[in-house]
Design a protein that fits this description.
The chain has two domains: 58 residues, Homeodomain-like (Arc Repressor Mutant, subunit A, Orthogonal Bundle), CATH 1.10.10.60; 131 residues. By secondary structure, it is mainly α. 78% of the residues lie in helices and 0% in strands. The N and C termini lie far apart (58 Å). Helix 4 runs antiparallel to helix 6 and helix 6 runs antiparallel to helix 7.
Length: 205
Amino acid sequence: MKRRAYESDTRRAGAARTRRRILEAARSLLVRHGFDQVTVSQLASEAGVAPATVYSIFRSKSGVLKALIEETKYGDRYAALVQTALASDDPRERIRMAASIARLVFDSEKSVAGLIRGAAALSSELKAIEKSGEKQRFERQEPTVALLFAKRREARGLDFVRARDVFWALTGRDIYRMLVLERGWSSDEYETWLGDVLLRTLVQD
């Protein structure tokens, strides 16, 4: 039994390394050439695997791109920030950290631009990724708003449902895009401003 468990762990570790090689190769090729110019055969050659391995793990070239996008936006730093936020029972700290999480995600999205160059044909799939991410973001924010109300720091004139909506809207990418990408704010300025606005809007001192 122990030998089987060891062999299973070894296979999983090997599969993880293979997946990592493919993603690193894809990132390099897509940034240099754009999505439409890269074939699965080229990607497999760059990663040192057979094309069948790429299909087995990701099913398609678009599957590789989706994995890269999700990894870029929701990687280890994101997971660590979320865990730190959830470990706090101070709603003010949690709300401040929501601004940090928003900044991290949207800063990360800028590095995705090179990966999706030439991927107009995937617009519907990319929209599906974005929609799924927004749904996930909305759901993950619920515990913070619940904590806010549990601590009797009720949002100013907002019930629980409206407070969730406002929290979600203020931490959305549109505000980041307008302030950082279009108006030239630094990411630090955006994060500080967003934290202040969230607290003024949601926390009743």
